[in-house]
Amino acid sequence: MPFCHSFRFRTGGFARRVGAAAAVTTLALLPVACSSSQTSSSSPATAASAISLTDQWIKAADSGMSAAFGTLANASDQPVNLVAASSPASARVEIHEVVADASGDKAMRPKAGGLVIPAHGTAILKPGAEHLMFIDLKAPLRTGSEAALTLTFSDGSTKTVNAQVRDFAGGKENYQPSGDNAAHGG
C-alpha cells in the first residue's frame, strides 16, 4: 500500500482516518467478491440452461405424424448434444434429418447420435432438414393451439417449451424409419 502511505503523509488527521476506513471497507469486500465468483464458477451448468429454443412451431395435423421446428441456440463454451425429445401430443418424438436417397429423392430418417448444437452457435430445425418428428399423434394438432415439447440433452438435463401449431404443406419427404420402427413408417 505505498500509495495509501504517501496519501496519509500529505494529508491531515481527518483524511488519514477516512482513508484508513475506506481501505478497511475495501479489504472487507474483497473476500466476498472473490468467494462469490468462485461459487458461480464451481457450480456446474447444465446443457439445458445453455440452450434456448426460439421461433418454435409444430405443423398442424389431424393424425399420424407431424414435426416441430425452430432455432436452438447454445450460449455455452462447449457443444451441446440434443439426444431425445418428447411431447404429450404424441406417443414418440424422434430427432430426424432429411437426406437424398440413391435416386435423389428426399427421405427423412432418425438422426443417429442426436443433434449437436455448437458452442456459441445454433442448430436450425426446419422443413426439409433436421427437425423433431412427432410419431403417432394422440389427438389432432389444430392451427393456433400450442403443444409442450421437452428436450433432453446428453447430460440428462431437460428443457420444456411450448410451440404454436401452424399450417404448413410440408416438403413431401418420404419417411425411412429405423429398423425397430418399421411398422410406424409411411
TrEMBL record:
Database matches in Gene3D superfamilies: PCu(A)C copper chaperone
Signal sequence interval, chain numbering: none
One Pfam family hit: PCuAC
Membrane-spanning intervals of the chain: none
PANTHER family noted in UniProt: BLR7088 PROTEIN, COPPER CHAPERONE PCU(A)C
Name by which UniProt lists this protein: Copper chaperone PCu(A)C
